[in-house]
């Protein structure tokens, strides 16, 4: 997993080719995320198409917004989802809400702990991150002139540039703040989500699936299999000041057997949690912040 994450982190690049202080794409860090066991049957509507790691922050935070500057200046084809610079300082969680990743993940990922095939509760992704980024970032600045269920909704003449509205389609205001982006067929008809969201192929235990941090993804509603569908969420994190600072706090939580900072807090102690003795490799120990890098 550490080797795979290192490879993924190195898909990002610095267009200016400057030496960025405190950044090492080849030194992965670890973000302790969730473990999921989904039983067969039932229907989940908990994870419709969405993007994690920043909601209204994508527009509101100047550094995060800089990641999309080519799109916002009209040169959307030049947008590089793998440009490193803005990502390093992007504040993806301005309001410190629980369950919001505050770190920079180059890719989100999960490690399969069971055999899972399409229709068995697996992951679906939108297959083009350049197009979805361009469309989602610009969508708040356009307004349809016909009802969303009109057969003429796809005609570009039925859309108008309009910056008078404070609405951000797909950004949902909840009790605990903004969530989303959550594109929907009604609000984002040009994404053809019913057709384009694609299930990942069958995975076996030990297979890992990664998707770029801006990729629209969802979880299948149905699980028609006969076994549990179980995954560990393990993203790819490079070393950078933002991630290093988080890993320092996460380490203290790990040593105390309590939940990491980005998650709902509670004081309960869980039996059987890991200890530093369980992390055998020097790469893993460093990724958890237990040792410092040797230059
Ligand atoms: Fe997600």
UniProtKB/TrEMBL annotation:
Transmembrane segments: none annotated. InterPro entries: Gig2-like, IPNS-like_sf. This is DUF1479-domain-containing protein. It comes from the Eukaryota.
